[in-house]
Design goal:
281 residues, mainly beta, SH3 type barrels, Immunoglobulin-like, 14 strands, flat
Length: 281
């Protein structure tokens, strides 16, 4: 008989008799359990992470704070009993007034400082001598012409003589010199010595320079050359020719060249003279 069935019969018999159940010892039951061992393969993947290094921030040098400048010590206020002395304001000096230019007919004083020759035009090469003057002679200065001055004086015979003297031959006070104005009329003059050349065509050429040292424009300026000589003891004219200057018209302070052609004079006693002509408008 199986063991399980026998056990059940015994329990039923005991219960029917009213017997108290007896504590049954624990029955050991053996259970067979089949355990399956599963091997799990774990694959490990190594990942290499490359990081770019960030540049280090620039080093900030400490800024030196400027040293505190001590405030100036306040000057002590004057005592209420002391009254400051008022400083007088400087007197304004009036600006010097420029001397007015010379009026027509007015003149300033000048003194000749060396023995000189006074010429009819402001050029010692082309001008004609009008009088000699000694140092210390007082003259009246009328006009300016370049570096020359037009003067007026009385001769030893009490005649009024006008002429031109160079600036280094005369002494004029600076304040008076500033008042002297150019000649109000156009006054072209020959400012260089005339040059004579003989051309292959048998003509004689006279060349030079004319300059306007006046205050107005000279128009149609021309130079005339005259050849003079003697025939049978009497003066005669061999030839007379004229030519316009290169620019024809001459403004104040301007100069221009000229060339005049005349017949060739064979006689050694022949001389020449020149004259400058112009018109005004």
């Amino acid at each position: 008989m199986p063991r399980r069935l026998l056990t059940l019969l015994l329990l039923s018999l005991v219960a029917g008799c009213g017997a108290k159940p007896v504590a049954q010892a624990p029955i050991e039951v053996t259970r067979e359990v089949e355990v399956t061992r599963e091997v799990v393969r774990v694959q490990t993947q190594v990942v290499v992470v490359t990081t770019t290094a960030k540049p280090a921030p620039p080093t900030v040098e400490p800024t030196l704070e400027p040293s505190a400048i001590p405030e100036p010590t306040a000057a002590p206020e004057p005592s209420s009993t002391s009254i400051p002395t008022a400083v007088p304001e400087p007197t304004a000096v009036p600006a010097p007034t420029a001397a007015p230019p010379l009026e027509p007919g007015e003149w300033v004083a000048g003194t000749i400082i060396r023995k000189i020759r006074v010429y009819d035009i402001p050029n010692e090469f082309a001008g004609n001598e009008v009088i000699n003057s000694d140092p210390g002679i007082n003259v009246r200065v009328l006009y300016r012409g370049g570096q020359w001055y037009q003067v007026e004086a009385e001769s030893t015979s009490n005649k009024t003589v006008e002429g031109w003297v160079y600036k280094d031959w005369i002494k004029i006070a600076p304040e008076d010199e500033a008042r002297i104005q150019p000649n109000p009329d156009p006054l072209p003059v020959i400012v260089s010595k005339i040059t004579q050349t003989l051309g292959n065509d048998g003509n004689k050429y006279w060349s030079g320079t004319v300059m306007n040292i006046g205050l107005k424009t000279a128009y149609d300026v021309q130079v005339e050359i005259t050849l003079n000589g003697f025939v049978a003891g009497s003066a005669t004219v061999f030839d007379r020719q004229s030519a316009f200057i290169a620019t024809r018209n001459l403004e104040p302070g301007k100069s221009a060249k000229f060339v005049v052609a005349t017949a060739f004079a064979y006689r050694s006693e022949a001389t020449y003279s020149h004259e400058v002509r112009w018109t005004t408008r």
